Amino acid sequence: MTIPYRLLLLCSLVSTLGLVSILPESKSATATVAGCPIPALSRFQRHKVVRGETLESIAQRYNLIPATLIDMNPTLMDGSVTVGSELQIPPYNGIVVEVPRGQTWRQIAAKYKVRADTLFEINGCQQDPRIVFVPEVNGSPNRPIAASTTPADVEKPDRASISGYPLQQLATIGLAYGWQINPITGEVFFHSGVDLLAAVETPVQAIAPGTVVFANDQGSYGKLVIINHSGRLQSRYAQLDNIEVTVGQKVNKGDLIGTVGTTGKPTSKQPHLHFEMRASSDLGWVAEDPKTYLKQ
Ligand SMILES: [Zn+2]
User: Fold this and answer.
1) CA of 227 to the centre of ligand 1 (A)
2) Domain of residue 164, CATH code
3) Residues 163, 285: one domain?
4) Which residues constitute the domain of residue 95?
5) 65, 257, 261, 276: least surrounded by Cβ within 10 Å?
6) Ligand 1 centre and the CA of 224: distance in Å?
7) Are residues 104 and 165 in the same domain?
C-alpha cells in the first residue's frame, strides 16, 4: 500500500485502500457521551460483487445513490462493477473528507451545510477528528442528487399529538439540550437530550402512546428504553435503574416503563433521567430539542 489515500472530486477521500487504513483509527473514538453512536467510518460494510449485479442494483440494495459508491470505490469510475471485487459500503449517502490543517470539523459542517450536531454525532462525538464522514442531506450542495433514486418523502407526519412528561412531577433541568461542556471531563459535546433531576427509583413513564423498540443496556446510555411513536418520532429514557417493559410491548401515555438510576456514563453525578426525542430522517434518528415535546 503506497498511497494512504488520495483525493477525488475536490475533498472526498475515496481510495479503497485509504478507507481500510482509516477504519482502525476511528475505532479509538470511544463514545464517552450518552447518545453517541458508533462513528460512520466504523460502520462501513464490504460487499463482494456477484454475477448479475450492477452499480445501480448494489446501490439500491443499500439504499444509496450510485454516486456515493463511486466516491468510496474509485474502481467504479467507469460505472461498471467487476464480479468478485469487494466494495466499501458506507452507512449513508455522503463523502469522506479530510479536515484541512488549521480547520475544525465545525467549519466542515458549515461548508457542506450539515447541522453541526448531526456531523458531530455521526462521527462518534470525536473532539478533533482529522477525517470525517459528511452525510449528504437532501439539497446539500456537495453533489447533484440523482432525482430518480431519491425517494420523494412528502409525507408530513403529525407530530403535534406527541407530548407529555416522563416523570410524575416537574423536574429541575440538570443539563439542557444542545452544545454543552461536560461537567466531568470539561470537553465540549452535544447533549442530545435533557437531564431531568430526580432521585434514584423515581418512576419513569411513557410520554405518549407507542411501541417499545429497545429495553436493555446500551453503553453510555446505561439501562435504556426506546419507544417509537406515530409521526416517526422516538423517545428515549436513559441511565435507568430498572426497566419495567419489554421489546414489542405497546404502552400508553403515563405507563410505568422504569425507574431513574445512574447506570451507564451519566454526564453528572446527580441522579437524573436523560430524556431524548428523536425524529426519523434519511440519516437515521436525529435528536430534536425535547422542550418542544415536554408538557406536563
Ligand atoms: Zn444527559
Assistant:
1) 17
2) 2.70.70.10
3) yes
4) 5-135
5) 65
6) 12
7) no
Number of domains in the chain: 2
Strand partners, 203: 259
Number of CB atoms found within 10 A of residue 104's CB: 13
Residue 130 resides in a domain = yes
Residues with CB under 5 A from ligand 1 (ion): 195, 267, 274
pLDDT in tens, the chain (296 residues): 323 332 222 223 333 223 333 332 333 333 345 567 788 888 888 999 999 999 999 999 998 888 888 888 878 878 888 999 999 898 888 888 888 778 888 888 888 888 888 888 888 888 888 888 888 764 444 443 333 333 434 344 567 789 999 999 999 999 999 888 877 777 777 888 999 999 999 999 999 999 999 999 988 899 999 999 998 899 999 999 999 999 999 999 999 999 999 999 888 889 999 999 998 877 778 889 999 999 98
Copy the grid coordinates of residue 259: 425507574
Read off the C-alpha cell for 97: 473528507
233 Cα–ligand 1 center, Å = 19
What is the Å distance from ligand 1's center to 34 Cα? 6
Interval between CA 5 and ligand 1 midpoint (Å): 37
- Distance from the first to the final alpha carbon of the chain: 60
What is the distance in A from the centroid of ligand 1 to the CA of 195?
5
Distance from the CA of 293 to the center of ligand 1, in angstroms?
A: 16
Instruction: For residue 184, count other CB atoms closer than 10 A to its CB.
Output: 12
Residues 6+ apart with CB under 8 A from 169: none
- Cα(74) to ligand 1 centroid in Å equals 41
Half-sphere exposure in the Cβ direction for 109 (13 Å, CA): 14
Q: What is the pTM of this model?
A: 0.62
